[in-house]
């Protein structure tokens, strides 16, 4: 007769720890899905989990952490969750200004902060951030090809700013620049590749 087996089964470890890259990718994809479905509360709650996990795996005050905060805040801007996005974008901008003050990511994040303030109806505070963010992003030495896709977003915020201020001639001028940027982007090989890759299935956990 063989030895008796204990009825207690050993605890199974989670397939992936909370900060595992594959799990974070899966959650980011799920956040995007919630956002597209208009499930704002679900998206924001899951974003908080992803941000907490990122803080646990990335060095404090590092450009990598700033990149995660900025990227995740982009979804909050799309959801118009201005108050949720503001402290994250301010934190990302503070890190970027200390670690890489002349990088396009710094100016893109500055434009994003202007977008938050615009959403909060703080137009005088938003305007200088939106103008500087766009103008510095346009500098060739500051904006490599991967940053070009963010320029129409910066322009669209400027259009909304001057519409909100009731300055229709200024809004029209910026809208003309926005349409030109969108047309140029549609013709770029990088943008075509982005459209192709966006049709691919989202990453999953193995």
Write the topology of this structure:
Blueprint: H1 21-36, H2 40-57, H3 63-78, H4 82-99, H5 104-119, H6 123-137, H7 151-164, H8 168-187, H9 189-198
Number of helices: 9
DSSP strand tally: 0
Q: What gap, in angstroms, lies between the N and C termini?
A: 40 Å
Summed over residues and divided by their number, the pLDDT gives a mean of 81
C-alpha-based Rg, rounded: 21 Å
- Overall helicity: 55-70%
Uncertain spans: 9-19, 192-206
Global shape? globular
- Spell the H/E element sequence: HHHHHHHHH
- Biggest sheet: strands, sense, closure? none
Features:
single chain, 206 residues, mainly alpha, 0% strand, globular, disordered C terminus
Provide structural commentary.
It is a single chain. Helix content is 69%, strand content 0%. It has nine helices and no strands. It is mostly helical and 206 residues long. The model is unreliable at 9-19 and 192-206 (pLDDT under 50). The protein is globular. Helix 2 (40-57) packs antiparallel against helix 3, helix 5 packs antiparallel against helix 6 (123-137) and helix 6 packs antiparallel against helix 7.
Provide a compact summary of the structure.
With about 210 residues, the protein is mainly alpha-helical.
């Amino acid at each position: 007769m063989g030895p008796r087996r204990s009825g207690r089964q050993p605890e199974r470890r989670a397939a992936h720890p909370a900060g595992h890259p594959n799990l974070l990718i899966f959650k980011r994809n799920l956040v995007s899905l919630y956002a597209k479905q208009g499930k704002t509360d679900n998206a924001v709650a899951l974003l908080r989990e992803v941000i907490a996990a990122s803080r646990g795996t990335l060095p404090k005050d590092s450009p990598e952490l700033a990149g995660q905060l900025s990227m995740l805040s982009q979804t909050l801007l799309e959801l118009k969750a201005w108050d949720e996005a503001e402290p994250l974008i301010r934190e990302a901008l503070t890190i970027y200004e200390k670690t890489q003050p002349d990088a396009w990511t710094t100016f893109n994040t500055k434009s994003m902060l202007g977008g938050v303030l615009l959403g909060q109806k703080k137009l005088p505070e938003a305007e200088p951030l939106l103008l500087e963010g766009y103008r510095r992003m346009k500098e060739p030495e500051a904006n490599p090809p991967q940053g070009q896709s963010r320029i129409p977003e910066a322009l669209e915020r400027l259009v909304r700013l001057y519409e909100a201020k009731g300055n229709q001639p200024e809004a029209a001028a910026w809208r003309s620049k926005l349409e030109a940027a969108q047309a140029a982007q549609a013709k770029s090989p990088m943008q075509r590749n982005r459209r192709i890759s966006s049709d691919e299935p989202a990453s999953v956990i193995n």
